[in-house]
Amino acid sequence: MTTFDQITPTVTAVLEAHRSLVGRLDWLLVNRDLNGRVRLIVPEAVDADEALRTSVIALVQTLAPQLAPHAHPQSCAVLFEASREQACQGAAAYALHGFDNVWVVDRLATEANWARIAPETQGTPRIVFFSIKGGVGRSTALAATAWSLAQAGKRVLVLDLDLESPGLSSALLPPERQPMYGITDWLVEDLVDNADVILEDMVATSNLSHDGEIHVVPAHGSNPGEYIAKLGRVWMPKLQADRTRERWSARLERLLLALEARVRPDVVLIDSRSGIDEIASTCITDMGANLILLFALEGEQTWNGYRMLFEQWQRAHAAEMIRERLKIVGAIVPELDRVSYLESLREHAYGVFVDTLYDEIAPPKPEAVGPASGSDGKWRVGDLIEGWNFDEADEGAPHYPWAVNWHRSFAGLRSLQGRLAVIDVQEVNAIFGSLLDGVRDAMGMEGQS
Questions:
Q1: pLDDT digits (tens, 9 = 90+) for 312-363
Q2: What is the mean pLDDT of the chain?
Q3: What mean pLDDT is predicted for residues 207-228?
Q4: Per-residue confidence (pLDDT) for residue 372, from 0 to 100
């Protein structure tokens, strides 16, 4: 009995056995519906070619028994469409490994699409703070980063996109400065073309601003109102006048562009929801992030989670589009045995990156590059061709962690806002220095610690 995880390898094996037939098709879609059942979609021109149509039906008759129960009845196991784009209709799709004209299409209950990677923004730098697990000090680190950049004279825009567990705004804004509206309000009002009315009342300036400014856009306003009812609507696509659908992530991008035009920040800091869900997918893949900080605690839960995410990028051939933007952050590094803790964190991070995102470097063919350097004619490490790969001890590598140290003055705080109001630069650097230096370097602020 085939399970969901066996669908792709089973389909691949059957298509490989019928490669000559597959090569005659302009394109072929392996469509997985919401229930995980598979049917094939081919160009409608195939339907008019009796011989080709018969061959495709025979292929389906071979495939269906091997996929059961993840196969549609043979009477409806093949669809004919005018174009591949029309057949996909915005669903998540990626090329099937080993084929130039075959794609796997996933129809999902949500519009989250970890394989659809937006290119890096060319305007204001955007930095996303993300973690697989909650409770790792991610929002605290973002608040400290905003504080530090404002100390250096930067204008910082902060977005609290942890919509299901909001709280970042309370770290940067006292109650009297909380704006009237937040991101959830804008997304709901946008559905009825009323978003412009509230844009001016959803940004507040933090009292923690120094030589620069910290502009905060909270998840909700000073009076959350019917927050749960609104939260259930923020993911909605918007139906445009021409009857096309605008994905919620595209709506969020419109909001961000409007905020950037209004605030004109030097950098945008985005607090993402933890876990592999709709919000996290949008923050990491859809908003053109230039730097994605992956907060990590040493432990199997962390690395199993990141491995699943990286493997999805690997399967979807999307890794090369995002891997250079990633950076591991060692979260809440303990006071005792810090060195050994960070070594273990680095070792496990390296293992995950090597297995999923780094290039597997193989020796070049001797006839292509000349003789090997060894006197015995064997290839040595120095003879390997170049690729996107790093040594485990390379401090500039994505897997090498920037450390955020645990500190008793931040443990069990009732008010992060009050703590940041009285903290000094030395204290901040002692706790967050590695992270802050890395962010400054990424922004081209070397020497401004």
A1: 899 888 899 999 999 999 998 998 899 999 999 999 999 999 999 999 865 5
A2: 87
A3: 90
A4: 45
Pairing of strands 238-239, 245-246: antiparallel
Q: Please, what sign has the CA dihedral across residues 197, 170, 253, 184?
A: negative
In the chain, % of residues over pLDDT 70: 89
pLDDT score for 386: 63
Structural domains of the chain ordered from first start = 4-106 (no CATH), 126-357+398-442 (3.40.50.300)
131 contacts 299 by C-beta, under 8 angstroms: no
Q: Find the Cα–Cα–Cα–Cα dihedral 205, 428, 442, 266, rounded to 10°.
A: 20
Mean pLDDT of 107-118: 76
* H, E, C per residue of the chain: CCCHHHHHHHHHHHHHHCHHHHHCCCCEEEEECCCCCEEEEEECHHHHCHHHHHHHHHHHHHHHHHHCCCECCHHHCEEEECCHHHHHCCCEEEECCCCCCEEEEECCCCCCCCCCCCCCCCCCCEEEEEECCCCCCHHHHHHHHHHHHHHCCCEEEEEEECCCCCCHHHHHCCHHHCCCCCHHHHHHHHCCCCHHHCHHHCCEECCCCCCCEEEEECCCCCCCCCHHHHHCCCCCCEECCCCCEECHHHHHHHHHHHHHHHHCCCEEEEEECCCCCHHHHHHHHHCCCCEEEEEECCCHHHHHHHHHHHHHHHHCCCHHHHHHHEEEEEEEECCCCHHHHHHHHHHHHHHHHHHHCCCCCCCCCHHHHCCCCCCCCCCCHHHCCCCCCCCCCCCCCCCCCEEEECCHHHCCCCCHHHHHHHCCHHHHHHHHHHHHHHHHHHCCCCCCC
Q: At what angle do helices 7-17 and 50-67 cross, to 10 degrees?
A: 140
Residue 221: count other Cβ atoms within 10 Å of its Cβ: 21
